[in-house]
Amino acid sequence: MKAARFYDVRDLKIEDIPIPEIDLDDDVIVKVKVAGICGSDISKYSKTGPHIPGEVFGHEFSGDVIKVGTNVENIKSGDAVAVCPSLPCFKCDQCKQGLFSRCENLGIIGNKNAGGCFAEYVKISSKNLIKLPKGIDYETAAGIEPSCIAGHGMYRANIKVGDTVAILGTGPIGLLLIQWAKIFGATKVIAIDVFDEKLKIAKELGADICINGKEVDIIEKVRQMTDLKGVDVAIESAGTPLTSAQVLSLPRKGGTVLYAGVPYSDVNISRVHFEKILRNELTVKGTWFGNSYPFPGREWTSAIYYMKKGELKISPFVTHRITLDELPEIFEKIHKRDIFFGKIMVNINNN
């Protein structure tokens, strides 16, 4: 089969490798239809490199089941599926409590644990698959995993009906957080970014107010919009050192901060922002992966439900649809910042 093999930073090659085979009774072979490029894939390509030279990475995808192990009962050959890429151990103390996103030995396909989805076929356990209902296409289904990442964060933030929510960073996760915030009942959602192109999409997906951080002092602007009180929940989804500090100054007294963006450099927080945790008695939370009990979790069933209702959308922020052969070129363009992009979808067997 054709696969994208990752050898080193900025060294990605399309090569032929063997199609994976059934090894365990609960193994399933999935023919990949559509795969999405995650922000972590971009950082991996440009900065951190592979865990094992020659690995096949990528973890956001949908596809068709073509072969199942002897003990597989929940899925059959021919089923269209969404794929959860998380690989909890199911044995540690966190897993025994159903807290799979906190697994002490958590893995993900596309790293050293298992081959990823930038390939024509993937082998994975049947417990990681959810059969797709009619009405959800493969591209939308490839967006379920990042939707669950955002949804898990919403459950962590405990957003309530009537809340005002500020979201810093309107990349794919930020745009999904905007939609989830509305689903959870937020009355006012404030989207903050430095790119007008992204803010335009944020507005289309439900943001009530859009603020360009290059043009105004976002902290003062949010204060003005909230009667000088601040928002109920502020979410950092850009993963920059600047926004990781600013987010602490956006909530009201007793409000909540959720860190959803992954910073790939050190974060230095000034006293003026850090003291807000103490003086305003903030609740500060992190969020990781998108799983809960029963695995893969309520995030997955909820995402599919709201996608069917049309309240959780992927296509409005898909900016590129490419083939597997074009993958090395698009990663290099991203690295060189030669393109503006939102979500990039790779059509692999989706002709």
TrEMBL record:
It holds the Pfam family ADH_N. CDD domains: sugar_DH. InterPro entries: ADH-like_C, ADH-like_N, ADH_Zn_CS, ER, GroES-like_sf, NAD(P)-bd_dom_sf, Zn_alcohol_dh. SUPFAM superfamilies: GroES-like (SSF50129), NAD(P)-binding Rossmann-fold domains (SSF51735). Transmembrane segments: none annotated. Keywords: Metal-binding, Oxidoreductase, Zinc. This is Galactitol-1-phosphate 5-dehydrogenase. It comes from the Bacteria. Its cofactor is Zn(2+). It comes from Anaerosalibacter massiliensis. GO terms for molecular function: oxidoreductase activity; zinc ion binding. Residues 7-346 form the Enoyl reductase (ER) domain. Belongs to the zinc-containing alcohol dehydrogenase family.
